[in-house]
Amino acid sequence: MKEAEADAEETIAEAEAAREARISEARSEADEIVADAEAEAERLEADRLEEAREQIEEKREEIIAEGRRERTELVDEASDRVDEVVEFAVERFEEAVHAQA
Fold it and tell me: How far apart are CA 30 and CA 14, in angstroms?
């Protein structure tokens, strides 16, 4: 009987050790899964940030290009007007000169 009790206690101890080993292994696997998920989340966040930066840079370049086009148009229009204004001023000057003559 004592031998049977000893065998039973040994079986119970082995079962508890195996259970603890499985629990420890499951915790390790869970920790690894969490670490992988965190790494994936960080990678996705970095990818999204990079995409956002690229979109912002593209929009910035578009805005700058549009501003340059508008500036060129304004400068061209102003140059055209300068010629008209100079011509107008010369005509008025000539009229004034002829009026005095």
Answer: 24
pTM of the entire structure? 0.55
What is the token pair recorded at 72? 């060129």
For residue 27, the model assigns a pLDDT of 97
Q: Taking phi first (over 0 means left), then psi (-120 to 50 degrees means alpha), and beta for anything else, what does residue 42 get?
A: alpha
Please provide the DSSP assignment of 20-76 as one string.
HHHHHHHHHHHHHHHHHHHHHHHHHHHHHHHHHHHHHHHHHHHHHHHHHHHHHHHHH
Mean pLDDT of 34-49: 98
72 CB neighbour count, 10 Å cutoff: 10
* Measured distance between the N- and C-terminal CA atoms of the chain, rounded to whole angstroms: 147
